[in-house]
Amino acid sequence: MIPLSHYLILSATLFAIGGAGVFLRKNLITILLSVEIMLNAVNLTFVAFGRYAGNLDGQIITFFVMTVAAAEAAVGLALVIALFRHRESLNPDAFTSLKW
Amino acid sequence: MPETVVFYLFAGLAVGASALVIGQRNPMYSVLLLIASFGALSGLYVLLDAPFVAVAQIIIYAGAIMVLFLFVVMLLNAPKEDAAEWDRTHPLRVPGVARWGTLLAGLLIVQLAMALTAIRDLGAPVGSRTDALTVSSVSDLGRVLFTRHTFAFEATSILILVAMVGAVVLARRESEQ
């Protein structure tokens, strides 16, 4: 049997990879993909804890996270398309005029 | 012990594919690698006795969300970050803020690993509780979802409706009238 801590460490590693992607990459699509990695890391934590506690709530909340991820992807990609039409670029540095 | 081997196989696959996702210059490869990572995670869900979550992971994430990403990558057709931009922004070549971010991310891994290994109780295997249900059936899941979590379920439908309307409004081309 795998100890619970192994799952949690794996999940923390995935979350850190996703966070690094959000901060380091200069491409809006890759940033959204990194957010998906982070959401999946959290899902793994929920399912592992749910299995550990022996109830189904962890799996239920995973479905809700998946739903939110789908909604986030739809709206986020619509925003990316709108921004790309505006500037012909996916680099977040091209959209700094929102600052003022 | 085959279970341990399978766990480390899927864990390595998930971490490796995820690391390559943020290491790729071409978003097309990033999306495909993320599908591989989600497949590995779904294997881990099977290992955690959550077969329905595993199937939903494949159908919803790999099947729907990633196809949406692929669709947008192909639609925009300007995906690749050019080499100069990549060299300029690569975390290992630029000192300062970017390297600071990498350091913080590494620190986060170390801290979380230390915190998790420090807790004694978590060393117990995941399925060791005797009162726990073994393999969660879909009917059990449905019963819990539609009794205890009914409100959250209904609220989710509103969320999806709002997201759908929002996506249509945002991505619509402004008509020139």
Provide a quick synopsis of the model.
Chain A is mainly alpha-helical and 100 residues long. Chain A has 3 helices and no strands.
Word description of this protein:
- The complex is a heterodimer of chains A (100) and B (177).
- Chain A is mostly helical.
- Chain A is 78% helix and 0% strand.
- Chain A has helices spanning 4-24, 28-53, 57-87.
- In chain A, α1 packs antiparallel against α2 (28-53) and α2 runs antiparallel to α3.
- The longest helix of chain A is centred in the C-terminal third of the chain and has 31 residues, at 57-87.
- Among the domains of chain B are: 1-80, Four Helix Bundle (Hemerythrin (Met), subunit A), CATH 1.20.120.1200; 136-177.
- Chain B has helices at 2-23, 27-47, 51-76, 83-89, 97-118, 138-147, 150-171.
Number of domains of chain A: 1
The largest sheet of chain A is: none
CATH class membership of chain A = Mainly Alpha
- The chain-level mean pLDDT of chain A equals 87
H/E element string of chain B? HHHHHHH
Order of helix and strand elements from N to C terminus of chain A:
HHH
Index terms:
heterodimer; A: 100 residues; mainly alpha; Helix Hairpins; elongated; B: 177 residues; Four Helix Bundle (Hemerythrin (Met), subunit A); 7 helices; 0% strand
Q: What topology emerges from the helices and strands here?
A:
The complex is a heterodimer of chains A (100) and B (177).
Chain A: H1 4-24, H2 28-53, H3 57-87
Helix pairs in contact in A: 1-2, 2-3
Chain B: H1 2-23, H2 27-47, H3 51-76, H4 83-89, H5 97-118, H6 138-147, H7 150-171
